[in-house]
Amino acid sequence: MWNRREVIGASAAVLATAVGGRALGQANMERVEIDLRREIGPLDHVWSRCAGSDRASLTLREEWRHDLERFQRETGLERVRFHGIFNDDLGVWRVGLGGKDPNFQNVDQVYDGVLARGVRPMVELSFMPRKLASAATKLPFTYEANITPPASMENWGAFIQTFVQHLVDRYGANEVRQWYFEVWNEPNEVRWFFTGTQQQYFEMYKAAADAIKSVDPALRVGGPATSAVQWIPEFLDYCAGENLPVDFVSTHIYPGDDQQKIFGEKNKYSQTAVIPAAMAQVRAQIDATRYKGTELWLGEWSSDSPAMIAHIITNCLPYCQVMSQWAMSNAFEEIYVPNYILKEGNNGWGMLAQRSIAKPEFNTYKLLHRLGQRRLAATGPALASRTQHGAAALVWNLAEVQQPPGIPDASTMRKVVGSPKTLTVALQGARSGAAVKVSYVDQERSSPYPAWRKLGSPKYPTREQIAEIRKAAELGAPETRRLNRDGELTLDLPAEGVALIELST
Predict the structure, then answer these.
(1) Is the Cα torsion angle 353, 224, 146, 163 positive or negative in sign?
(2) Helix H or strand E encompassing 233
(3) What is each CA distance from 6 to 255, 319, 395, in whole angstroms?
């Protein structure tokens, strides 16, 4: 599911933005200019709107709930998205157990647990309850969810209506109106998530959307939740023809996805450019229909490189209202139960490793959370903001980091194409000699890997070793620096490193 993106039909200026405007491997010095005197509009924290996770039943575990609490507290997470709220492992509606009605006892525990931690659910309507399924085909994951279309669209719609009415009765209409209901997950992935056709998915969407709006017209429904930004024009054409509501459009893309499939050309873009380009493409597809301006949810994407995360988010801001990185926690068991705490190469999807060990991805989101709500003008690799007490700017040294394919927990050795770089950061409007605080995240600082390797890279670290690794992985304390007489600061960043500069005024 990982893919590279680019903007089809976008202007050369947009493409230059998407690739960062500077080729890797050029001079190891770069200038960043931030104008503290010029706000250019709001800075929408699209990155904190949602994060992905594994499946609904896993949210009942203590470790997962602890990770959710931490993510909300330290990164400002607003929602969490996970698969399988209708899976048989929650006992929603199993065959042969008696009774004609679904059982929402465990569903309530899932949503109660999420809400109790200050986070709302992004409700993915998946997978098919066995009672309603047209066949017995199962997802080849540990939890073996049924991935077939319903035997009856009428019964599917009635079930969704019952489910949504139950949520409104339990949590209240005002609360549930702030949720989002997404129909299924990656229905275009016939190998993994859906055995039906495109037309069957569209009919499922229609039945679900009608059912949701029959409970409360103010509830929000969307889709198609496809991988590799597929089906968007077809989905919107169908919905327009059937006069269906689409309150948000959701889709997925990863830096390593098949570019031939997405853009019609193999290896057209670097992995750092793929996602912004694809989001520009989808935004254009939406805005060419009657659904112009509809929220765009990037429901799954990922990167384990701090600078790549910052770069992708910044360049997606013109297009997306939500960016949900996959995944929040490495309490994660799709293909198999992970048999490691950390490992060389790909360390799993989770931004928090097992035992709630912070990874550089998580610490990057902690820095992003410290940005303000008003964006400042900046040139170069930077995202700058006005804060309550002054200004904050995230700067980075972008590298091309090979990302694993979109198979859960796929193994790959990290290949980094880049080099250390000196950034000269000019804070225009700051007084000469002003003190600033600088926080760093890369693969060595604010990272668990050096401490883990020092301990011998243990597969099964002791409790004492886990505590030591966890402590070393925390975001490091900021260093205090002073601007020179020209209001400038020089920072040495390793390849893929980021730094947050905070200035009090």
Answers:
(1) positive
(2) helix 232-241
(3) 10, 13, 23
The tens place of each residue's pLDDT in the chain, 505 residues long, gives 333 222 223 333 333 333 333 444 445 999 999 999 999 999 999 999 999 999 999 999 999 999 999 999 999 999 999 999 999 899 998 766 555 789 999 999 999 999 999 999 999 999 999 999 999 988 888 888 999 999 999 999 999 999 999 999 999 999 999 999 999 999 999 888 999 999 999 999 999 999 999 999 999 999 999 999 999 999 999 999 999 999 999 999 999 899 999 999 999 999 999 999 999 999 999 999 999 999 999 999 999 999 999 999 999 999 999 999 999 999 888 877 888 889 876 667 899 999 999 999 999 999 999 999 999 999 999 999 999 999 999 999 999 998 866 655 555 677 899 999 999 999 999 999 999 999 999 999 999 999 999 999 999 999 999 999 999 999 999 999 999 999 999 999 999 999 999 999 8
The answer to whether 125 and 182 are in contact (CB under 8 A) is yes
Nearest to 331 by CA among 52, 26, 12: 52
Question: What are residue 464's phi and psi, to 5 degrees?
Answer: -70, -40
For residue 445, the one-letter residue type is: R
Contact yes or no for 455/469 (Cβ under 8 A): yes
Sequence-ordered list of residues with C-beta below 8 angstroms from that of 262, at least 6 positions apart, any chain: 3, 4, 5, 6, 228, 229, 253, 274, 278, 281
For 178, residues 6+ apart whose C-beta sits below 8 A from its C-beta are: 120
Tokens describing residue 138: 């199962």
The model's pTM: 0.93
Q: Please give the Cα distance from 499 to 424 (Å, whole number).
A: 12
Q: Give the separation between CA 392 and CA 383, rounded to whole angstroms.
A: 9
How far apart, in Å, do the first and last CA atoms of the chain sit? Answer: 44
Closest CA to 275 of 299, 294, 293: 299
| Entry field: residues in the chain | 505
> DSSP secondary structure string, 336-390?
S----SS-SS---S-SEEGGGEE-HHHHHHHHHHTS-SEEEEEESSEEEEEETTE
Q: What are phi and psi of 317, to 5 degrees?
A: -55, -35
Write the single-letter amino acid at 281: Q
Q: Is 67 helix (H, G, I), strand (E, B) or coil?
A: helix
Q: Are strands 400-401 and 416-417 parallel, antiparallel or unpaired?
A: antiparallel
Quote the CA–CA distance of 427 and 229 in Å, as a whole number. Answer: 38
Distance CA 76, CA 365 (A): 9
